[in-house]
Inverse folding.
């Protein structure tokens, strides 16, 4: 009876290790986004504006849009230097929305702001939003939420409102959120099962 007990224990140990590693990677990837998030809210605090709260669905959409940009080089016609109205349009935008459980109806009032900064140097990333035309949007009281996504040299900020047309209606069906919750439950179960087996 000893052998099956041990293989179950090691199987649990191995799988939780894998889950912990996945979570670790997710967290590492978030650094430049967290920097920008904090930087933008400090900028808003200086202007006596309320901090923007993180919106998971806007995060998701920002990631999907960054993914569309990632093959494009940084030029003077894309990113923070974009002339309003000449932003690249994506024919598959509705697909990107639906991948994030969103629709045109609850994202229409949102604001998508892509920027390209080689190496995503944190100080340059921040000024590309706070010291460009984008600062007018960051300074706008109608925005209450924010999502940030990045791929390669591209970082995308999506602003949301607290009106139905810009709510980006956050559901709980975010992948990373599920992963971390699953990981937490899994680890607690591991400790339970582990202690029972070791008794
Ligand atoms: C981008 O740069 C090129 C060459 O430097 C210039 O001809 C063009 O007018 C610029 N475009 C914009 C939108 O500034
Ligand atoms: C934005 O980033 C570019 C690098 O892509 C940099 O050259 C430029 O100075 C930045 N602009 C601002 C306003 O910070
Ligand atoms: C932000 O908006 C306020 C009120 O509309 C205005 O007084 C202020 O000058 C703006 N600041 C910047 C940096 O645009
Ligand atoms: C996960 O989603 C739930 C429901 O939307 C939210 O209350 C919670 O704060 C989220 N957790 C994390 C770690 O993002």
């Amino acid at each position: 009876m000893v052998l099956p007990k041990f293989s179950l224990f090691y199987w649990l140990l191995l799988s939780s290790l894998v889950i912990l590693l996945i979570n670790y990677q997710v967290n590492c990837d978030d650094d430049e986004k967290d920097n920008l998030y904090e930087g933008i809210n400090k900028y808003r605090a200086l202007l006596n504006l309320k901090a923007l709260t993180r919106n998971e669905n806007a995060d998701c959409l920002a990631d999907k849009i960054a993914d569309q940009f990632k093959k494009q080089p940084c030029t003077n016609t894309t990113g923070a230097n974009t002339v309003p109205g000449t932003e690249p349009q994506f024919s598959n935008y509705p697909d990107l929305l639906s991948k994030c459980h969103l629709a045109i109806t609850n994202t229409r009032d949102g604001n998508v702001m892509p920027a390209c900064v080689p190496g995503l140097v944190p100080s340059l990333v921040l000024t590309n939003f706070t010291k460009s035309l984008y600062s007018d949007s960051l300074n706008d009281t109608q925005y209450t939420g924010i999502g940030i996504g990045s791929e390669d040299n591209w970082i995308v900020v999506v602003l949301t409102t607290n009106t139905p047309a810009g709510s980006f209606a956050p559901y709980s069906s975010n992948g990373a959120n599920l992963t971390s919750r699953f990981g937490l439950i899994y680890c607690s179960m591991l400790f339970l099962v582990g202690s029972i087996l070791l008794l």
Remarks:
- The chain has seven helices and four strands.
- The CA atoms of residues 64 and 96 lie 6 Å apart.
- The mean pLDDT is 82.
- Strands lie at 53-54, 111-116, 143-151, 154-161.
